[in-house]
Amino acid sequence: MKNLLAKKDGELLVSRIYQSESTQFEVKSCLIGGEQVMVIAGPCAVESEELLKETAFKVRAAGAAMLRGGAFKPRTSPYSFQGLGEKGLKLLARVGEDMNMPVISEIMDSEDIGLLADYADILQVGARNMQNFALLRKLGQLNKPVVLKRGMSASIEEWLLAAEYILAGGNSQVILCERGVRSSEPWTRNTLDLSAVALVKELSHLPVMVDPSHATGVRSLVSPMARAAIAAGADALMVEVHPQPEKALSDGDQSLTPRGFSTMMRELEPVARALGRRLR
Amino acid sequence: MKNLLAKKDGELLVSRIYQSESTQFEVKSCLIGGEQVMVIAGPCAVESEELLKETAFKVRAAGAAMLRGGAFKPRTSPYSFQGLGEKGLKLLARVGEDMNMPVISEIMDSEDIGLLADYADILQVGARNMQNFALLRKLGQLNKPVVLKRGMSASIEEWLLAAEYILAGGNSQVILCERGVRSSEPWTRNTLDLSAVALVKELSHLPVMVDPSHATGVRSLVSPMARAAIAAGADALMVEVHPQPEKALSDGDQSLTPRGFSTMMRELEPVARALGRRLR
Amino acid sequence: MKNLLAKKDGELLVSRIYQSESTQFEVKSCLIGGEQVMVIAGPCAVESEELLKETAFKVRAAGAAMLRGGAFKPRTSPYSFQGLGEKGLKLLARVGEDMNMPVISEIMDSEDIGLLADYADILQVGARNMQNFALLRKLGQLNKPVVLKRGMSASIEEWLLAAEYILAGGNSQVILCERGVRSSEPWTRNTLDLSAVALVKELSHLPVMVDPSHATGVRSLVSPMARAAIAAGADALMVEVHPQPEKALSDGDQSLTPRGFSTMMRELEPVARALGRRLR
Amino acid sequence: MKNLLAKKDGELLVSRIYQSESTQFEVKSCLIGGEQVMVIAGPCAVESEELLKETAFKVRAAGAAMLRGGAFKPRTSPYSFQGLGEKGLKLLARVGEDMNMPVISEIMDSEDIGLLADYADILQVGARNMQNFALLRKLGQLNKPVVLKRGMSASIEEWLLAAEYILAGGNSQVILCERGVRSSEPWTRNTLDLSAVALVKELSHLPVMVDPSHATGVRSLVSPMARAAIAAGADALMVEVHPQPEKALSDGDQSLTPRGFSTMMRELEPVARALGRRLR
Predict the structure, then answer these.
(1) So what's the pLDDT on residue C248?
(2) In angstroms, rounded to a whole number, what is the distance separating the alpha carbons of residues D20 and C231?
(3) What integer best gives the mean pLDDT of chain D?
(4) Is A158 close to B76, i.e. CB distance below 8 A?
(5) For D206-261, what is each residue's pLDDT tens digit?
(6) Which of A184, A188, A191 would best serve as a mutation to test chain C binding (most C beta carbons within 10 A)?
(7) Is the pLDDT of residue B8 over 70?
(8) Which terminus of chain D has a lower count of CB atoms within 10 Å, N or C?
């Protein structure tokens, strides 16, 4: 790790020099950072119990280990659908319990940490909040895993130092999530930076997740980018699945159908094996 | 304003179509958005009463109307100087009062809004929090002006919609601040986007500020970029000044000395007049 | 000038350390790099004698010193209008002579250097060819001024080193032209980087031009960006003007009408004077 | 393929709508675009016969099918090593013949097309010349395969339309090469855009190559990115190998040693098989 990542009196907590073995931790019975590539799937936003149940049932059948679903949605416009809030969290928690799947949801306001911690097994910090340092500090005092998405145009150094805010507070259960960086390419929503995955695995002991759905914004690219992410060394994938993408309240264009998800999982399996890993 | 900025049932509150006349408001006796180009100056961070007083005295003498100074600093690393907190705010308020200058300081955590509102005349949202929607909503309920800095790689649409979160909450005293966008150019810290100033003045009725110090990160570029900002239509400038930049606890490379600030002000004067405006 | 611009055995020829006084040279009776801010105007492409004459007549009346017009057009698609070629050059040269205006046109192929040199007073290298080193070397052996546009995403160092290829060949009549860098902002075609103008004036003795038309791609932004360019220190401006922009064969959206150009010139005049310069 | 890629009177020649089956062609006995993922290896620049022979012998033994080596080098500075020119081409051709490996080298000047065509089996257009339309047109009249590298910040549409210039001239043996796009990340030289590989395979019938060496600029990232490229659908890889990278005249930091290359090949093999392909 280059000097710019060293603090004055020693190495950063996120650094592989500080800790050479890769961080692993369990979420319910799912091991993050181990041999298995963990696949998290679900709708962008929790919309209704029925849709969520159907999605959860189908993605679990296809091999997903955890369930995702946004209850508080960071939307560019104040007039867009903002998520179901606490009601959405409750639905997510209930469906997760029924299906025996740990659940992950986004934290947007530090005042909601208690609420999120009550219902979700993993809290996700979105790209727009990667340098919301007040939020990061508070998550450092939490005893729950945190997914830290890379900011829209954050450098790798900034991303690792944002994670350091959480570790410095005492919470070392951090998963770094690459979700694409902003570029001038209009065809894809963002540009997925898979070299960041390989680099961060080298620089840090923290597990790394890839979100090919938000990264590309294009349904047909999700599966090839999921394959490439595993080949680059990702420990986990987070994929948007919606039974009727064309009716989704947000991000329909990038959501797989349950059938598409199932096809993707079959395509991922041999790639994971080629890397000496497995999907479940 | 293009369709992408229209909401379903009418125009956005930030739009010039919704409100054709430019927004103006007073901060103590300083009029924002009027004929005068308002110049705000001061150190990046409040460090000590003595340094702050010296800076304030000298920038006021050179023509600055308001005083800036960070008490809560958004730092990439958790181990960098984080600001003096409430103590810094108190110093800033006291010096501002002594010098008869309104003061501006950054809000980083929604929990500190009350504290900031007690001491500062204008609250500043930094680039990293431009899409901290929870914070923006709460600032919408405040009766104080807010400076909204453009995010590192935010589009103009995203920036205006972030302002819309504040206006939609009932607070229409918003100043948009261009501070450079992230680019691949290594020589400057960011790339100052002055076309955004002219464009936003066309699309919106809100006043626009430019921060040439953070935008360039290079002392010698501050004055030429301040001139260009006025020529592009900026209503206000925010400039970092430190009596001993080489000893500043943050951002010394881009800080002007009081003498440099004074020179800059003399260079700005004729440009402002050429645009039919004045510096004070 | 930082070390990265130094060559092993001394300073670069483009450097202000190598040559402290600003480079000036005459094109017919127009002095480039002097007190006057030179304004070059004309259509994106030469389309017909009639349109070119009308444009030249009107822009000269409004104060333009030189005439621009593309005969070989670098078009993204092979099926777009590619320019009139030699016929266009002849028209340009004839109209320039009639109006007593030096003319500038783009060189795309090193095989055409002789042809261009026969008709044009200044040869322009487009952004796409900024690192066409074979072309740059040949232009180094020419005894005519060359405008070197900055590449789409070229760093300032790369731009100056591209100019060095020409100077190293013996041709020191080089004008650097900032025309916007590629960014993720969809509202403007490119992001005009005016800090590059101030920085390059500091690093190099070469004159600097700004092209606000290509930089913004938006007609209403041309005049404010031209003002800001002068305020930032530009020595010349190149502006697209077309009598009927909506019918232009290329780049109509960014072309000013002759009347719009005339208005712009009146707005530029006081800004130039505020900087101690004049338009003519 | 979206409308922006359609020409007025039909589909583009590069489009999968125009031609649904993937383009395949042979270079000597190597089939490009078929089941095999073609691996091209060799030094950045041809430096000496001895080094080239050693490299060729070792990369062939490890499974490389073709040999690369620059004779004309596009260097940012005119004072950097520019390549051995024709002498380098002759060496490359001779070693290629001895080893029974087709050779690939970069064309920088349209005047050298004949020379390149005499010695090289495939001509490569570098990123800086992707929109050197004069060069592309001339390559359209050649009866040799052309590798077209994506420009530093070229959009996918611009890249495909640059290829269209070659196809429109009659040469349909074009290989598209992704080599990273410019970004603000300082840790890697460029940001490898693997979503572009999957997208271009969907939009076009042309074979796609990935250059993980130039894309990352970091030796340790070459192998993971090569794996990810195959997983994303690449038909070919081009990798820099140098027996003594620390002594290389250019790009040593990103060159693999022959031993490192051999390790990479062993790591790629199972990934290729997982995708139903093979390395040789």
Answers:
(1) 85
(2) 54
(3) 95
(4) yes
(5) 999 999 999 999 999 999 999 999 999 999 999 999 999 998 888 788 999 999 99
(6) A184
(7) no
(8) C
User: Mean pLDDT throughout B183-200?
Assistant: 96
Cβ D206 vs Cβ D220: under 8 Å = no
Chains that touch B (3 or more CB pairs under 8 A): A, C, D
Q: Does domain C36-274 have CATH number 1.20.120.520?
A: no
CA distance B150 to B148: 6
User: What are the pLDDT digits (tens) for C218-250?
Assistant: 999 999 999 999 999 999 999 999 999 988 888
**Is the Cβ–Cβ distance between C142 and C117 less than 8 Å?**
yes
Cβ-defined contact of A194 to D221 (cutoff 8 Å)? no
Report how far apart the first and last C-alpha atoms of chain D are (Å, whole number). Answer: 32
Q: How far apart are CA C190 and CA B140, in angstroms?
A: 33
ipTM over 0.85: yes
Cβ-defined contact of C161 to D78 (cutoff 8 Å): yes
Residue of D nearest to C136 (CA): D78
Cβ proximity of D222 and D216 under 8 Å = yes
Q: What is the mean pLDDT of residues D104-116?
A: 97
How far apart are the C-alpha atoms of D116 and D120, rounded to whole Å?
A: 6
Per CB distance under 8 Å, which residues of D are interface residues toward B? 182-184, 186
CATH number of B3-274: 3.20.20.70
Q: Which two tokens stand for residue B186?
A: 């290594």
- Binding partners of D (≥3 Cβ pairs within 8 A): A, B, C
CB contact under 8 A, D168 and C134: no
pLDDT < 50: residue spans in chain A: 1-4
- B3 has a pLDDT exceeding 80: no
The pLDDT of residue D248 is 85
Say which CATH class A25-274 falls into: alpha beta
Give the pLDDT of residue C250: 80
Report the CATH number of the D39-274 domain.
Answer: 3.20.20.70
Pairing status of strand D66-68 against strand D103-107? parallel
HEC letters along chain B: CCHHHCECCECCCCECCCCCCCCCEEECCEEECCCECEEEEECCECCCHHHHHHHHHHHHHHCCCEEECECCCCCCCCCCCCCCCHHHHHHHHHHHHHHCCCEEEECCCHHHHHHHHHHCCEEEECHHHCCCHHHHHHHCCCCCCEEEECCCCCCHHHHHHHHHHHHHCCCCCEEEEECCECCCCCCCCCECEHHHHHHHHHHECCCEEECHHHHHCCHHHHHHHHHHHHHHCCCEEEEEECCCHHHCCCCHHHCECHHHHHHHHHHHHHHHHHCCCECC
Set of chain D residues whose Cβ sits within 8 Å of the Cβ of B182: 184
d(CA C207, CA C120): 19
Any idea where the domains of chain C sit in the sequence?
36-274
- With beta carbons under 8 A apart, name residues in chain C contacting D76: 131, 157-158, 161
Q: How far apart are CA B76 and CA B152, in angstroms?
A: 13
Q: What is the pLDDT of residues B32-72, one digit of tens each?
A: 999 999 999 999 999 999 999 999 999 999 999 999 999 99
**What whole-number distance in Å separates Cα of residue C13 and Cα of residue C46?**
35
The nearest CA of chain C is from the CA of D86 a distance in Å of 15
| Model confidence pLDDT, tens digit, residues B77-99 | 999 999 999 999 999 999 999 99
Specify the pLDDT at position A6. Answer: 53
Whole-number Cα distances in Å, D181 to B77, B133, B182, D107, D127: 28, 31, 15, 21, 10
Q: Which amino acid is at D265?
A: M
Burial class (CB in 10 A: 0-12, 13-18, 19+), D20: exposed
Residue whose token pair is 């047109």: D137
How many CB atoms within 10 Å of residue A156?
A: 22
> Would you call B60 exposed, middle or buried from its count of C-beta atoms within 10 A (0-12, 13-18, 19+)?
middle
